[in-house]
Amino acid sequence: MQGHRTKDFWAGAIYLVLGLATVILARDLTLGSAARMGPGYFPTVLGGLLAIIGLVSLLRGLLRPGELVERIHMKPMILVIGATLFFAIALDFLGLAVALPAAMFITATASKRFRLAPVPLLGLVAFTIFCVLVFVRGLDVPLPMFGTLFGG
Amino acid sequence: MDILGDLLLGVQTAFSFWNLTYCLLGVFLGTAIGVLPGLGPTATVAMLLPVTFGLSPETAIIMLAGIFYGAQYGGSTTAILVNLPGESSSVVTAIDGYQMARQGQAGKALATAAIGSFIAGSIATVLIAFFAPLLSSVALAFGPHEYFALMVLGLAASVVLASGSLLHAVGMILFGLILGLIGTDVQTGAMRFTFGSFELADGISFVVVAMGVFGLGEILSNLENESDRTTVLTKVTGLMPTRADLRAMLAPVGRGTALGSVLGILPGGGAMLSSFASYALEKKVSKNPQQFGKGALAGVAGPEAANNAGAQTSFIPMLTLGIPSNPVMALMIGALIMQGIQPGPSVVQDQPVLFWGLIVSMWIGNLMLLVLNLPLIGIWVKMISIPYGYLFPCIVAFCLIGVFSLANSTFDIWLMGLFGVAGYILRKLDCEPAPLLLGFVLGPMLEEHLRRAMLVSRGDVTSFVTSPISAVLLLVAAALIASVLAPAIRSKREEAFQDED
């Protein structure tokens, strides 16, 4: 899939899908008239324009030689985004004091230079304490410090 | 207009203990993120926005502004010492600055950058104090037609000045505009694109978009090319410039300031374009252009002055018209709205404490930066050697906590993850994310003014042309777009952006 088509092609395809989706979704909304625009008027216009831009870009990608899409690195993406989603799921259960360092640890493994060593681990503990003190204690962000697992 | 009284109010505000503290905090953080490559002002301002909710509006803006212009100072340090731009606007500083450092003139290069930035910042601050009230008094007479036309002009300018493909810049703006419409329609109460989700009823917070696209998306891009950073030297000497050096930098700094001040006001221009334009100009007017690329003092002084001047004057359209000229200004507008202040021409009159306090704080901030960046340069030199592997998990952590604290819900974290993936993929496709954020912030305003304008003129589209101000604004917008499509200028534009890659 990747590498066969140019950047123009894929960007165009994304615009086209998003533009058409906007127009289709906006059909449920009242269109109104130019003088009295309903909630559907502006989105329909924007979606239509985006679809046109997408079509032009897509055709340009097909007809003209252009830069190919570079490889999309899946591993860092899965690890970093996975860590954010893990945090979202685990926050209530584990609490900030456990979920945060865990999410940071998962994130850190995305680096090519990741090595387990005592100093960064100590830094992780210190950073977690810092965040708990500043955000939960200092700024009163209603983050659970310890989750339901620990009876928090 | 009693400018002395206003300035006095500004001095009183800016010199209050807490405002001084937060100003220092802002410029300190700004320098830090400027020094660290891979962490930009957009992501940082987005991360810290939730923290500022508890502050008074002027204190919040003073600190956030400090981060933005502080980053311009810090970026040059990394550029000079490691040949890596700490900030995108200091790309050109690396060319001659690094050469100077290799020739043992690191101190002179750093001093030139800091002093040039300080002079430019001071002049640009005065420009804001004079021109912003003037512009806002003109803008007070604007109706919905004029506002709509003004925003179209702003978007057109950001398209023209954006690097990369024109088509994609327009596409990203439209995508941003559509994203901005998600949520409850203000006029009818209809739910738009919420998919029945309760959390989306209030729309997506721009902080979520900014953190996802600029915070996480940037991390994913950076992880592809991690490199070792080794500083050329650990001890910098010769920070005091000689009288001859000062004289040599005066003219480039003056030209850089003028160029940066003008380009900073234009949407999409800002700090980066200013520094490129200034470098090109200095090379052209120089008596010995062959010196450029081999350690020319003017090649550091001009661009550094220009990027700082541009950073400062980009506040003018934000403060007087409520229109952002770059992603950081888009975040500032969001910060003001969250503080209950509607950005627009009335801010100067209705919020004198905020407006004049900010202006005076900018000058103080620049002074603080001069001290932070010259005598205390040692701290930053040490900071450059922090490996990215330690840094990005901390950025992710701040994003997580910051996004959660927006609405105290984990839903926004999911959304941020989604925008992170989108930001990474779009970057891969050469679609610049900055126009997306501008469109996102302007979307609701653009629609509201369009609807009002059409209601007033009973659906008559020609009313946009019969109102003289809106006609001129739209004409300029059309001319801007047309100019890019014209082959001659098009090739020039591509040439100008070529050095960036």
UniProtKB/TrEMBL annotation, chain A:
Keywords: Membrane, Transmembrane, Transmembrane helix. The keyword Membrane applies. The keyword Disulfide bond does not apply. The chain crosses the membrane at residues 9-29, 41-59, 79-104, 116-136. Residues 10-144 form the DUF1468 domain. InterPro entries: DUF1468. Coiled coil: none annotated. This is Tripartite tricarboxylate transporter TctB family protein. It comes from Paracoccus aerius. The lineage of its organism: Bacteria, Pseudomonadati, Pseudomonadota, Alphaproteobacteria, Rhodobacterales.
UniProtKB/TrEMBL annotation, chain B:
Keywords: Membrane, Transmembrane, Transmembrane helix. Residues 20-438 form the DUF112 domain. This is Tripartite tricarboxylate transporter permease. The chain crosses the membrane at residues 45-69, 109-135, 147-179, 200-220, 258-281, 321-341, 353-376, 388-407, 469-489. PANTHER family: TRICARBOXYLIC TRANSPORT PROTEIN. Pfam families: TctA (PF01970). It comes from the Bacteria.
